[in-house]
Design a protein that fits this description.
Radius of gyration of chain A: 17 Å
Largest sheet of chain A: 7 strands, mixed
Number of strands of chain A: 7
Oligomer: homotetramer
Shape of chain A: globular
Protein name (chains A, B, C, D): DUF4916 domain-containing protein
InterPro entries (chains A, B, C, D): DUF4916, NUDIX_hydrolase-like_dom_sf
Distance between the termini of chain A: 38 Å
Structural class of chain A: alpha+beta
Organism (chains A, B, C, D): Bifidobacterium choloepi
CATH architecture of the largest domain in chain A: Alpha-Beta Complex
Largest interface: A-B, 42 and 42 residues
Pfam family, one (chains A, B, C, D): DUF4916
Order of helices and strands of chain A: HHEEEEHEEEHH
Region (Disordered) (chains A, B, C, D): 1-21
Amino acid sequence: MPVLNDEVPDDGDFDAGRRRGEFDNIRPEDFIDGHGNGRGNPPGWLGREDLERNRRQVPMAYVEIVPVRIDQLGRVEEIGTLLRISDDGSIVDRTVITGRILYHESIREAIARNVAKDLGDLALPMIPQCLQPFGVAEFFPTPGVSEYYDPRQHSIALCYVIPIAGDCNPQDETLDVEWVTPRGADVENAIAQMSNGHGTIVRQALAWIDL
Amino acid sequence: MPVLNDEVPDDGDFDAGRRRGEFDNIRPEDFIDGHGNGRGNPPGWLGREDLERNRRQVPMAYVEIVPVRIDQLGRVEEIGTLLRISDDGSIVDRTVITGRILYHESIREAIARNVAKDLGDLALPMIPQCLQPFGVAEFFPTPGVSEYYDPRQHSIALCYVIPIAGDCNPQDETLDVEWVTPRGADVENAIAQMSNGHGTIVRQALAWIDL
Amino acid sequence: MPVLNDEVPDDGDFDAGRRRGEFDNIRPEDFIDGHGNGRGNPPGWLGREDLERNRRQVPMAYVEIVPVRIDQLGRVEEIGTLLRISDDGSIVDRTVITGRILYHESIREAIARNVAKDLGDLALPMIPQCLQPFGVAEFFPTPGVSEYYDPRQHSIALCYVIPIAGDCNPQDETLDVEWVTPRGADVENAIAQMSNGHGTIVRQALAWIDL
Amino acid sequence: MPVLNDEVPDDGDFDAGRRRGEFDNIRPEDFIDGHGNGRGNPPGWLGREDLERNRRQVPMAYVEIVPVRIDQLGRVEEIGTLLRISDDGSIVDRTVITGRILYHESIREAIARNVAKDLGDLALPMIPQCLQPFGVAEFFPTPGVSEYYDPRQHSIALCYVIPIAGDCNPQDETLDVEWVTPRGADVENAIAQMSNGHGTIVRQALAWIDL
């Protein structure tokens, strides 16, 4: 059974007060693969208590990724949408790839790690040369402040369209990845199944890319 | 004497555990002006202890603003640089406008509040219609990880060029604002006086705008 | 009665073979106001024969401008749409501001001139500091090649959202300017009345701006 | 001996007055590969006389491409610069990839065709999903109007950073492609050897990408 929270508390041994320099020997791979014994948590991971306190005190930095398949001229042929069990476990929700940027993790590492988390290690995301996002979505914990709502937190999501060059193998809480053409009824249906503003981000991505 | 830290701890009475709904009656002006008796702290402000813990656990969301003067066709005529006393109080540092995005504060509010904080209430910043930043700067607490270094924290700064249409009246820790033409020795000197990567952001802004 | 073509041939005396240096004394105002006696044509204007030949041989450079009204925080409150008599004079068409970039005219001048042409001299467009367009629309003379169709020509339109700070006084072939809120039935109706892809550009602008 | 002009006149048989519909059966490959017997000219090519008249009457649409090599996380490792014989044949000039967008050619096709023209058919350019350029350079035939000068014409160049995934085999008037790291003396030397504003475009690209 998949774990329902987007951030699984580890055993809580992350020492938030580590001295400067502790990240000197951390490589990008440590964020992307996790580290320690087997597939542990990456550096910067937080225990549940710390995470929840942070979520009520400061905006959380996120990446929101619309995965796409492209042709030889770079045109988007398909958009990937993720099927997940919703947070309360009762229903199936549709979304895109979304995840927190960890302490001392770069945006590029966060993109690679979150793609690997949802689509597997062989997805081969093509990360852009410039990290200027196509948009910035502001999720508030109060319904109605903006289109973007997240009951857990105030988050600021940098939004990217990321081509996937490899094979997808849905992971963790992701049940399946479905690819739809970027126009027509299928993508409209997919957007309609997304909640809390994620569909708006897909619509923005569709408007931004060159169809 | 100006206060030297970019975030002044208030009396610590901010209740991080406030229930949802507490921001229902907060207006943009409350962030920009502060609220309560006179010019108190805006909602979302943190006491020093909470702030320092957050700074060691999660990336902090920032705006970094390059203020400019423009002509009738939108061309940049001057770039504003700020003279400040450095954090340890010993020397004068040059920088641009930079500040944290507070809990439940929108990016627009953070831009308006931070411009008002440094340039005064009559600066009349012209905030863009789209919040797509011209760049995203990642400051790490470990020197050498990137060009951007901040010993206090890992921060992710959304970078904007903001025209100033009104009058500037330097505030708080800002001693003076100096306007230089966007080309030539003056702007190069100003950039050379900026530390920890802020000069690189000005250089990016200069390359991005249309001179 | 309004003239129906977007480019009115003058008396054809433009000398396409003028030697280099002829634009040395041309100021931006000459493009924006026209020049010569009264309101003549700006430099770079072409007679009908030259214009038509160019239109069959090379892509024409255009600006496409979505005019907006904004609030103090830069948020879009209204979108302006133009009512025009269609090219064949029979029906009323709805569109945004669109016009050719003339020989030796800068993009900024083209934006200012085309806004003045449709909305009058007191519109006070706020031209951005960076000319990076939010999108590039490619109009082809062959239906079906892209969403953007222009039977007259292949054109490449740089698309901008431009706030209008002043008063509008519709000019030339523009019968009226109507302002609608950027969400809801009114803007959807306006988009539905636009032909040949201009509605898609408005939809892209709506997705790109921060609502 | 390489041909020195960026557009080689063919035998002049392009019929500028072809009726609409003539491009119905043209595929992207016809622009990229040329068509007809062997490696002829692509559709939309112009004879010298037509080209020169157009160049004095309307702005010409161009793409300007900074080729880069990237690592697995999308970071730029090297920037490609082209060595060419200058237009008058006397000296060696350094530049990036630049070329005209042809009549009825899409921007994507123009990018692919111009990369293939300079770097060969196996370069495998990775064209972005969105054609929003990082900048727009305006070249004027009058020196001093802007940083960008082109004695042949007024051109409007859409500027892109394009990763090259394949092998380079310099073609036509390109003598060699040299790859330099994006920082330090080598790239500064390369920029210093570029004339008429092309170095400024490389500098903009360097500022825009995430180093």
